[in-house]
């Protein structure tokens, strides 16, 4: 298991996507055979995560898939602001 606490924060969106693919999601990713917990503010990567836990002010407001988040997003203004669609 790997716990990555915002490792992409200092990178631009394009570079963070490349690093994400090489570490976590790509075909030869470093953590291919590991469970990974990624703490991030890079919401452009959410669609590539198998599960998403969204915390707002320390409270759990969502847990599920990207598709489920899109459905919630339509109903919840607080969630919409947090993920900045």
Structural class: alpha+beta
**Number of DSSP E strands:** 4
* Proportion in β-strands: 15-25%
What oligomerization state is this entry in? single chain
Mean pLDDT: 87
What is the share of helical residues?
25-40%
**Span of the ends, CA to CA:** 30 Å
Radius of gyration: 13 Å
Order of helices and strands: EHEEEHH
**Major sheet details:** 2 strands, parallel
Low-confidence segments, given as residue ranges, are none
Shape: globular
How many helix segments?
3
Strand order of the largest sheet: 1-2
Plain-language structure description:
The protein is α+β, with helices and mostly antiparallel strands and 85 residues long. 33% of the residues lie in helices and 22% in strands. It has helices at residues 13-25, 66-73, 77-83, and strands at residues 2-5, 36-39, 52-56, 59-64. The strands form 2 sheets. Strands 1-2 form a two-stranded parallel ribbon. Strands 3-4 form a two-stranded antiparallel ribbon. Helix 1 (13-25) links the parallel strand 1 and strand 2 (36-39). It is globular and about 35 Å long. The N and C termini lie far apart (30 Å). The mean pLDDT is 87.
Task: Give the key terms.
85 residues, globular, 3 helices, two-stranded antiparallel sheet, alpha+beta, two-stranded parallel sheet
């Amino acid at each position: 298991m790997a716990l990555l606490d915002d490792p992409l924060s200092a990178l631009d969106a394009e570079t963070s996507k490349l690093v994400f693919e090489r570490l976590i999601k790509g075909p030869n990713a470093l953590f291919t055979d590991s469970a990974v917990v990624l703490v991030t503010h890079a919401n452009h990567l959410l669609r590539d995560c198998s599960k998403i836990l969204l915390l707002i002010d320390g409270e759990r407001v969502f847990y599920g898939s990207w598709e489920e988040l899109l459905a919630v997003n339509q109903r919840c203004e607080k969630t919409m602001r947090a993920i900045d669609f």
